[in-house]
Amino acid sequence: MNSAIKVVKHLAFYCVLLGAWQTVAALHLWPPYLFPAPVEVFASLRAGFDDHTFWIAIGVSMKRMLLGYAISTILGGVLGLLLARSAFLEETLGRLVVSLQSMPSICWLPLAILWFGLSERAILFVVVMGSMLSISITLESGLKNVPRIYAMAGRNLGASGLRLFWSVLLPASLPHLISGLKQGWAFAWRSLLAGEMIFVTLGLGQLLMMGRDLNDINQIIAVMVLISAIGFLIDGLVFRNVESRLRRIWGISPVS
Amino acid sequence: MSVAFELPIDNVTEQVKIHLRAVSRQYLAGGESFYALEGINLEVSAGEFLCIVGPSGCGKSTLLHLIAGMDRPSGGSISLDGEPVVGPGPDRLLILQELGLFPWLTARENVEFGLKLKSYSKSDRRELARRYLNLVHLSQFENSYPHQLSGGMKQRVALARALVMKPDVLLMDEPFAALDAQTRDRLHDELERIWDETGQTIIFVTHNVREAVRLGDRVVVMGYRPGRIKREFRIALERPRHLENVVVARAARQIHNCLREEIEKSTRAEYQDELGD
Fold first, then answer.
1. Which one, of B62, B63, B53, B57, lies nearest residue B4 by Cα?
2. For residue A132, is it within any domain?
């Protein structure tokens, strides 16, 4: 019942939004090549799917995304572990990681292009640099913030070393870790699209730039809609589910 | 007739389980070192229910941590069955007021945790965990997560998680302090029954003298800074005892008189600390 009301509410909101957009467009305050009508954008969206350009772009981008994200998770995981384990590394390398993390990931692009050329690897590099650091920082703080009592209970019951890590410390820092992975995914997604705009990459980012080159505002907006829809779906389907399951089990309010 | 009487220090003990010789623990606080514990000599017999009372800050929790092997003494030695204690082990399980139940595991999985580390098979683990949850009357809640349980139930899960390991020694650090009176009464009964069935050695730290008299074979009174053993009382009352029983109350009064001076010292020190800030 509640969820039905929710759906209706959302539908109504988007109907009104689209209606308003269509009305403004119909008033011709701006030329249609600057302010298109939603109908046109929708047609462009359909055409993109019909001639498979969008499908291919989504496939190419998601492949890069998964590869880059996997690399960041592994490297970020290792880095986070090292930082959590060693006070020396935390004070030296840790500070550096935090300052590098504050840099927008697109700033890595010039370096990537010089190192790897206009290549697949340059994009991957930007994606990895964009998300790895935030994953390592959250893993580190997650491990550090595990209440001492859990480690004590684990040791008391006979766990030590790697067993203690796997069966106590890691699960105990899971709420932190999930929000870190979610943030890492969001950063990777942003970095990827920025990276893809640079040259002929076949991905969603390039479709945006192609829209600009062809002066096709319909395509630009259609791809923007697509990009935010994909981001929303993954956040909603994957991360939100995992988080709410975790919250149910732990009985906690959402972690930041 | 006196029901609680002082023990001679060099009393003859049967089968010593835990032996502390001249144990001390020094801490540094604000550049100054102080003794949380000093010159602790204590023998605990196998199967004994020993209660330790003392004012806050007297080092009674430190003492438990030392026996558990979570902390090392600065001086002296601790032995269990004649073997020196060098680290934590599932033969000496610590139950704290904040229990450290793992929130990501169900009640049953929490109880199974230690067994898993001992490489029990899945079916053995499950069966043992069920048996011990049954022992603490929590069979219906085996699939609940800790946050879904009440304070008393959590306390019982922690007890089951410790008991399933069949530890020789249970070390309990004010385990019932945060519970309401009814729940605590019931847990006293259950703990006493389980102790009676398993014959484990229990060291039970509390600040509640009546609780100590209710449960202990012997009550050790600790003094404040340096933490040391002030006096010991043998509680020769028939079990089960009741918290409200007149005889229990009288014994508690006697012990409390001995404790009062130390509590005053501790309170004064705390107030001074506050003024110092």
1. B53
2. yes
* Nearest-angstrom CA–CA distance, B64 and B220: 13
For the domain that residue A148 is a member of, what is the CATH number?
Answer: 1.10.3720.10
Domain residues for A196? 57-202
Average pLDDT on A48-72 reads 93
Supply the pTM of this predicted model. 0.76
| Among A145, A146, A148, A157, the residue to mutate for chain B (most B Cβ within 10 A) | A157
Q: How many CB atoms lie within 10 A of CB B29?
A: 8
The answer to whether residue A32 is domain-embedded is no
List CB contacts of A218: < 8 A, sequence separation 6 or more: A36, A40, A41, A43, A44, A211
CA distance A143 to chain B (A): 15
Nearest CA in chain A to B102: A150
Tell me the one-letter amino acid at B45. Answer: S
**Average pLDDT by stretches of 10, chain B with 277 residues:** 52 73 84 83 90 84 89 88 85 84 92 89 91 86 90 87 88 85 85 87 91 91 82 85 84 85 78 62
- Please check whether residue A192 lies inside any domain of the structure: yes
Structural tokens at position A95? 């500070």
Interface test with A, best of B117, B153, B174 (most A CBs within 10 A): B117
A54 has pLDDT over 80: yes
Facing residue for B68 by CB, picked from A147, A156, A167: A156
Q: Which residues from A are below 8 Å from B when comparing CB atoms?
A: 147, 149-150, 152-159, 163, 167-168, 171-172, 174, 249-252
Minimal C-alpha gap between A157 and chain B (Å): 5
- Cα of first residue to Cα of last residue in chain B, in angstroms, is 49
Helix and strand numbers (H, E) in chain A are 13, 0
Residue A28 in domain: no
3-state helix/strand/coil string of B19-45? EEEEEEEEEEECCEEEEEEEEEEEEEE
Q: Which of B99, B117, B145 sits opposite A157 (nearest CB)?
A: B117
